[in-house]
Design brief:
alpha+beta, Nuclear Transport Factor 2, Chain: A, 13 helices, 29% strand
């Protein structure tokens, strides 16, 4: 209904509710004593206007009420919540005009950042600039800890994504200083009851809770309880370790490691603790990890007799965990295991360790002179005596590491897998979120997988997907065939099988 139609409806309603009966009333009146004031035509017209005046007033109230409600929604209701996380955590509630309605500090560092600033009524850009400036001034953002997380919670996903992009660009511009370059993480919040519960439980923003959930979805090595106390820079380092591209988080820049001792120093510390020289190493890998809520370098290495796992505090160089395990290969006279030697007494009917090694080699299609054994020992698995056989062989730019579990009584292979260690991916012309370019097609990758399982077909493939991980595109999938489950990863650029894991569907 148009405004004109609405006015006409109101005028008619008031005319019927207040009819013009003045002439009839006057004709019934008797002459009264005193001065009689005659009702002129002019007065009669003015009386007729009263309903219209009332109608106009009502219309103004109706229309004014609508405009008032709309104005209230625009100016006073929360349209979006923006959170800034470094270690200080601050939330800003803004209206549709992106004016700040409320600022909330979620921890003590956040209260230091806000200080005595009254940001209510200011534009969001001004408020963010002020808070970033305070973080810089108070030393929360610097070359040692250069990461900040921007999270936008808005019911309108389009508005939320737009606000996220604009804030990310603005903060990135602010933090490109002469002294350091920042790493800006940004995301739109996908609200859920679980996310809300975790944020409230740990006293953190929804944005930080979502970032932690993103990391946990890619690694089973961490817990929420372990990651919640970490700073955004530390979480950023873990995010980069787990995947080159997160589904919900956009990352600009690289998290700083300048506050840590570095991989070279951590390696030296671990080798000195183990009493191992560089020349004795058969396998070696290192990466950032956490230990009881502390950032560490996880250093793993193998010699001809032992496997070592060492966690080195990333800031102090202190060893916080050290494990040494005899791998079953005859050690040198000068190197005795920390614990008693495994029982070498063989029960009648059991295969020998050498027979177990031969079974594994034959299955892999390799010979003893082409591999280096790093483990060959007996163990119990679900009450069953088994041999754990592990060996490596050179392959292209790195190693292939094979792991077998063999029934000690029957010699049957219970499970096996192989991984490409120190694998160097082919250069890619693609980036996450873009066209995949010169990758092998899905059909070719599936054929590569089923050719590893005689008798299987592509109809036996489950859980197939194309993923971007560790700087390369990969096909990941699973084959279930003949009561066995085969999990695999295939390099999407080269077609190389870089991971292969097999076990019974009943295990």
């Amino acid at each position: 209904m148009t405004d004109r139609e609405l006015n006409e409806k109101l005028r008619q309603a008031y005319e019927h509710a207040t009819p013009d009966v003045l002439d009839a009333v006057l004709s019934d009146c008797n002459e009264q004593k005193g001065r009689v004031v005659s009702m002129t035509t002019e007065k009669k017209k003015k009386a007729w206007l009263r309903p219209l005046i009332a109608a106009a007033a009502c219309l103004c109230l109706l229309l004014g009420g609508g405009f008032g409600l709309k104005s209230y929604r625009v100016n006073h209701m929360v349209d979006a919540t923006v959170s800034l996380d470094v270690n200080p955590s601050v939330e800003l509630q803004v209206n549709q005009k992106e004016r700040v309605l409320n600022v909330k500090a979620l921890n003590e560092d956040g209260r230091i950042i806000v200080g005595d600033m009254d940001l209510s009524g200011s534009s969001l850009d001004v408020a963010v600039n002020a808070l970033i400036g305070s973080m810089l001034q108070n030393g929360y953002l610097n070359e040692l800890a250069n990461s900040i997380l921007i999270s936008v919670d808005n019911d309108d996903p389009v508005r939320g994504a737009d606000l996220q992009a604009r804030l990310s660009a603005e903060v990135d511009r602010l933090l490109q200083t002469d002294s350091f370059s920042a790493s800006v993480l940004s995301q739109t919040v996908v609200r859920s009851s679980e996310l809300q519960q975790m944020a409230e439980q740990y006293g953190i923003t929804l944005g930080k809770a979502q970032l932690i959930q993103d990391i946990l979805s890619r690694s089973t090595l961490h817990t929420f309880d372990e990651l919640a106390p970490l700073s955004i820079n530390e979480l950023n380092l873990l995010l980069g370790k787990e995947t080159a591209a997160a589904t919900q988080v956009t990352v600009v820049g690289t998290a700083s490691e300048k506050g840590y001792i570095g991989e070279a120093k951590a390696k030296t510390v671990a080798l000195e603790r183990a009493g191992v020289t560089e020349s004795e190493l058969l396998l070696y890998k290192i990466g950032l990890d956490t230990h009881n809520g502390t950032m560490v370098y996880d250093v793993e290495f193998t010699t001809d007799s032992y496997e070592f796992d060492c966690d080195v505090n990333a800031k102090t160089g202190e060893i916080v965990k050290f494990e040494k395990e005899y791998n079953g290969v005859a050690p040198a006279v000068s190197a005795q295991p920390d614990t008693a030697q495994p029982n070498t007494n063989q029960t009648a009917g059991e295969i020998t360790v050498e027979e177990a090694k031969t079974i594994a080699l034959n299955h892999a299609g390799l010979t003893a002179d082409a591999v280096t054994f790093v483990k060959a020992k007996q163990d119990y698995d679900d009450g069953r005596l088994v041999y754990e056989i592990e060996f490596v062989t050179t392959s292209g730019n790195g190693y292939l590491e094979y792991d077998y579990e063999i029934d000690a009584a029957t010699g049957s292979i219970l499970s096996y897998d192989y991984d490409a260690e120190s694998y160097t991916p082919q250069p890619m012309t693609t980036t996450p979120g873009t066209a995949t370019g010169a990758l092998i097609d899905e059909a070719t990758a599936k054929l590569t997988a089923v050719n590893q399982v005689p008798g299987a077909s592509t109809s036996d493939i489950y859980g197939w997907k194309l993923d971007y991980d560790d700087g390369r595109w990969e096909y990941e999938g699973k084959i279930i065939y003949n009561q066995m489950e085969f999990e695999f990863t295939i390099d999407a650029a080269t077609g190389a099988v870089i991971e292969w894991d097999v076990e019974s569907i009943y295990d």
